[in-house]
Structure prediction request, 386 residues.
Amino acid sequence: MTGLAAAASTTSLGEAVQFWILGTVAVIGALCTILMKRAVHSALSLAGTMIVLAVFYLANGAYFLGVVQIVVYTGAIMMLFLFVVMLVGVTAADSLKETLKGQRWLAAGLGLGFGILLIAGIGNASLRHFDGLGQANAGGNVQGLAALIFTKYVFAFEATGALLITAAVGAMVLTHRERTERATSQRERSQARVRAGKQVPPLPAPGVYARHNAVDIPGLLPDGTPSELTVNPTLRARGQIRDVSGEALTGVKELERRSEDWLERDSGPRSSSAAPGPAAPKEEAKK
Amino acid sequence: MNPVNYLYLAALLFTIGAAGVLIRRNAIVVFMCIELMLNACNLAFVVFARMHGNLDGQIIAFFTMVVAAAEVVVGLAIIVSIFRTRHTASVDDASLMKL
Prediction:
């Protein structure tokens, strides 16, 4: 299909259909990459675009590059991106405050102008015919690439090796943090804790006894109020604390109401006569 | 369909990536837009290889991929170290060479 004719000017219908469908997907993915507010969504859109590009490589006779695109780009690079997004914080959305006035519109206008120039340039070039890779791929795509890499481009290939080693060392140097002071030992930390005298025993555990044991539920103090100290500081900072201190009271109230229904007692006079009624659930919570 | 349509697609993707670099201010998203531009160039190289009937374009695209992998490693390390010192990934806040 690609290279049977020496100089064809049109591809098969199947490839045209594939191009228009997947090309739309690629452009939508690219637009989502720059328009999504959260970095995770951008990364996933970009991964979709890269998979579509891999299919295009395969359609253009670049079988090796198509597989490398999936393995290296979508497999390694995008996962590295997602890893860093998780490290930096998923919720870190772009700030909407404009530092330069009208920067967004100016940038969009510049992009539009640039795109028009680029596409007009391609339109002006005379690219009516194409040769196809039938002859070049005759001995196999990988074999053809290997023959070129290890003869004509061997010096570039070796420079690539040096570049990769430099990049690996550079990444290690950049992310390495030199310890400026000695790490405190467990004994020293415990001694400091005793000296400070603020919280000598371990922090109280989260959860409400026999009801909830999730880490985001604060334990209750004797008077039924939730204790902030029992929840992890990270959850506290994010505001992801589930307060269930009210649940016990409503549960007890519901139980009382149902038991009175079941015993067919009239709760009317009791609730009106019993002045310590509201205090009773509090007694329950104290236990 | 003429394969030149692939070139138009590559130009469009490159333009979207360039606009993203200018518009977005989250350093990670800016980096993703750079990757998008590199990928668009790769697509153009692969299509040129098919048009000319030799594999040189594919070799260039292969080298681009290797360089992009190295660039991503170093770039993300820089972003992580900036985030460590400044607690933000916005390119606006990284306005000084030193903290």
Observations:
- Chain B touches chain A through 71 residues (CB under 8 Å).
- The first helix of chain B runs from residue 4 to 23.
- Helices of chain B lie at 4-23, 27-52, 56-86.
